[in-house]
Amino acid sequence: MQVHKYDVVIVGAGGAGMRAAIESGQRAHTAVLTKLYPTRSHTGAAQGGMCAALANVEEDNWEWHTFDTIKGGDYLVDQDAAEIMAKEAIDAVLDLEKMGLPFNRTPEGKIDQRRFGGHTRDHGKAPVRRACYAADRTGHMILQTLYQNCVKHNVEFYNEYYALDLLTVEEEATREDGSTYLQKRVAGVVSYDLATGELHVFQAKSVVFASGGAGKVFKTTSNAHTLTGDGMGIAFRRGIPLEDMEFVQFHPTGLAGLGILLSEAARGEGGILRNSEGERFMERYAPTIKDLAPRDIVARSMANEVREGRGCGPDKDYVLLDLTHLEPAHIDAKLPDITEFARTYLGVEPYTEPVPVFPTAHYVMGGVPTNIQGEVHQDNDHTIPGLYAAGEVACVSVHGSNRLGTNSLLDINVFGKRAGTYAAEYAKTADFVDLPENPLVETQALLDNVRQADGTERIAAIRKDLQDTMDANMQVFRTGDTIKKAVKDIEGLRERYANISIQDKGKRFNLDLLEAVELGFLLDLAEVMSVSALGREESRGGHFREDFPDRDDERFMKHSMVYKDETAEMQGIKGLRFDTKPVTFTRYQPMERKY
Amino acid sequence: MSTEAVEPASKIDLAAVGGGGGEIPQFDITLRVRRYNPEVSEEAEWEDFTLTMFGTDRVLDALHKVKWEHDGSLSFRRSCAHGICGSDAMRINGRNRLACKTLLKDLDTSKPITVEAIKGLPVEKDLIVDMEPFFQSYREIMPFLVSKGHEPSGERYQSPEDRERYDDTTKCILCAACTSSCPVFWTDGQYFGPAAIVNAHRFIFDSRDDAGDMRLEILNDKEGVWRCRTTFNCTEACPRGIQVTKAIAEVKQAVLARSM
Amino acid sequence: MATTTEFVPPRSGRIDKKYNRVPGKKGNFEMVAWLFMRISGLFLVVLIFGHLITNLLVGDGINGLDFGFVAGKWADPLWQFWDLAMLWLAMLHGTNGVRTIINDYADKDRTRFWLKMVLYFATVVIVVLGTLVIFTFDPCIPGSPLEVCN
């Protein structure tokens, strides 16, 4: 067994992980584990921009940005966190500029800004130009710039090291009122070296989870193959709750049938959505800001057009993104990559033809609950000393029930920086927690079980069925019946998962083995998502229940929290415990959400 | 340029512009993959798979079909699957390509499609190579902005023209398709390689950067830009359409100009 | 049980040795060589075509080309210089070209070294001999057909 000792270990090398590493690496002995290479992370696929109220091109201020974020999240946003994010957005953009990020510039040489869905002037009066961008490859530039600065600061990366377990110990602790509870403390991380198949223990004073989302529970998704929710799954299995997992964002404009993302910037730059009759149908659903309404509304409107028979194509199953009225030169300057995607993958020329699009699973709003310092909650009242999370894996919650476009790039920069800073500061004063007696025993058993399994089921077949049922039953429109169907299907898939076998039994680059482990996380998360969705009998943001089409602040203005608990039961599913957490309000009272 | 002025029509005649999509054809292919697993045998060998694929499928889909339905031990790297993460550079029919950006229908499907690991880097297993030498070269050219003088409190200004100067080389995704297509790199792996030079170019021509001289000094090495023979393999291989050879030529000129 | 290590370097620790670059000598040799190739190339185009035109096209053309013709040219300092420049530039240009080919195609340092030694030796011999011939050329060798010698 190899044991490495670091002050701070960061799991994941996407935007949040590397932003944290830049802070932490300059303050403490830091290692970054990534199951890929840092520049392969899915931050690089983000396109449109990163919002900050710089007011470089028109009047703006961070308070409007806060409001838009809260309204966009249908008021399920923790308002203190949203305020911090909008306020620190400005520095986050300037930090990136100083690190060398090549933003597009205005004629005066300032950072240029463009419109984006849900971002408005003066509390919803009109769209505002708030998104700082670099063509339609802002995420790529952010990822590269952060990696470049990690190289500059000599951050130690462990490439192709999969995190498979979080090592925690529990101690008895006393509350102020004298009652006792079990306080979790973090000891380290267990990691699997893909190249050799060896397990490594990383003992650390603080651990930062920045492992990204879990879009691969769905079939049609803009997410990478590797976004299998490992971080959420690991935390969940170690008794850490998952917050608001029923809220998944479906991005309106994925390439039809493929799910490849076409940035909202396409609409920010003037692109519009049309149905089979050539109508600009968003005029009906969001008369003021039309195609630039938040993503949940646009995605639902698109799905509704298709349902009502106004879809395009031979199967009438998509709508069209029309850029044909824009100048080709303008498209080339502002949207070069996404038009290239349309040409490569669908053979459509966006200069002259509208592009077939349909909603695609894009972002998990929920995740590991954290406070504004990035500290992970073990329950509503207590955080886990030394454990931090940032980015899509975390739920601060700044996105509430629906994330606004560009706010994820902002989230990773603002809260990545915070998590990295606080993790390093904590490590300065804290001591190492002793490792558990046999730190590898559970991970080893997990891997041995998969490696030695001699069942009849193939991993890919189970994963496909999982993705199919999630697409069919847990997508833009949900009802109690469809969700129950999904839950039931997942139970069936779990039984099949117990009867798998893999073909690669080796130690070297055994991706067959890892795919099986990842499927385990996907099944856990799909179940948590579905069961949370079943509990939320209302429609809010990304979660739309046709049997409960209205928002119900009375019963559901609160975060869902799901715990793994062998003794409990939730919606008829054993092993899950349900709880809620209040939403933090500062100055915005819930209003009806109209655009 | 502004688009705000023109408000698009709220209804148009779709027949006039047409819309993409239609029937998706289906065909059989033979995928010939270079297999190598030192745990089993020191010898690499070709293995054929016959697959039924669709017109919209990419080489990556074919590899997935093999891995998921035929032989789970086939190993290759991939992540985003749309040409932005740079994981799946490989030699497809003898040319360096991203598997996720190469549509099967664009290849000659009447003959076997050969897929092998990129050249010049040590093969670890099947299509996976050791990327460390590649990233080592990248790290050596100081791929980060260095600015001297006091840090401004706000943003640095940069004119759109200055920004445009290095735009092409900011697109690099470090997939190694260029470096591993370069015959000079194949020889002994000592050449810095196109990717490292492209990333140096990105900073040398950034008006905000002050360390251009140091990078030019590094690339003036005997394994630096002067080993480029302008075979254009790199430009041809780049999945991002970067004019790699041109960028190298510009760096050469900059080294010369600095010495004069 | 556990072997605890304070620091094990990440993947780069096991980089294949052949990729480690030996820090080269400082200096502009490669750049000068590169520049020389371009400049000498330009000169050679003029020199070689001038040479070809005078020898093969002007006057009687190829039919007038004999020992006397060459001797006549080398009696003129301009043509002495012309041919000397052509010899040196072509030899250095060619040698440097072959040197880069050896660098590109020989993958062992020893092989490279010996191939280059042979190359440099051949170059020196040819350049020295050629230079000597141009400056010490005597048209009146025994049996010379030229009238001036009789």
Word description of this protein:
The complex is a heterotrimer of chains A (595), B (260) and C (150). Chain A has 595 residues and is of the alpha/beta class. Helices cover 34% and strands 24% of the residues of chain A. Chain A has helices at 15-25, 62-72, 79-99, 138-152, 230-237, 265-268, 282-285, 295-307, 328-334, 336-346, 407-429, 441-452, 459-473, 480-497, 511-535, 553-556; strands spanning 2-11, 30-34, 50-51, 113-121, 126-132, 156-159, 161-174, 180-193, 199-209, 242-243, 248-255, 272-274, 319-322, 355-364, 368-369, 375-377, 383-389, 394-395, 558-570, 573-582. In chain A, strands 1, 2, 6, 7, 8, 9, 16 and 17 form an eight-stranded mixed β-sheet that branches. Chain A has a four-stranded antiparallel β-sheet with strand order 11-14-13-12. In chain A, helix 3 (79-99) crosses helix 11 (407-429), helix 13 runs parallel beside helix 15 (511-535) and helix 14 (480-497) packs antiparallel against helix 15. Chain B is α+β, with helices and mostly antiparallel strands. Chain B has two domains: 26-129, Beta-grasp domain (Ubiquitin-like (UB roll)); 132-143 and 164-259, Fumarate Reductase Iron-sulfur Protein, Chain B, domain 2 (Orthogonal Bundle), CATH 1.10.1060. Chain B is built from nine helices and seven strands, in the order H-E-E-H-E-E-E-E-E-H-H-H-H-H-H-H. Chain B has helices spanning 14-17, 59-70, 132-140, 160-165, 183-188, 194-204, 212-219, 233-237, 244-259; strands spanning 26-37, 41-54, 89-92, 95-98, 113-116, 123-125, 128-129. In chain B, the strands form two sheets. A five-stranded mixed β-sheet of chain B has the order 2-1-5-3-4, with helices on one face. In chain B, strands 6-7 form a two-stranded antiparallel sheet. In chain B, helix 6 runs antiparallel to helix 7 (212-219), helix 6 (194-204) crosses helix 9 (244-259) and helix 7 packs across helix 9. The longest helix of chain B is centred in the C-terminal third of the chain and has 16 residues, at 244-259. Mean pLDDT of chain B is 92; it is low at 1-5. Chain C is mostly helical. Chain C has one domain: Fumarate reductase/succinate dehydrogenase, transmembrane subunit (3 helical TM bundles of succinate and fumarate reductases), CATH 1.20.1300.10. Chain C is built from four helices and one strand. Chain C has helices at residues 29-57, 67-74, 77-105, 109-136; one strand at 3-5. The model of chain C is unreliable at 1-10 (pLDDT under 50). Classes of the chains: A alpha/beta (595), B alpha+beta (260), C mainly alpha (150). Chains A and B meet through helix 3, helix 4, helix 9, helix 10 and helix 13 of A and helix 2, helix 3 and helix 4 of B.
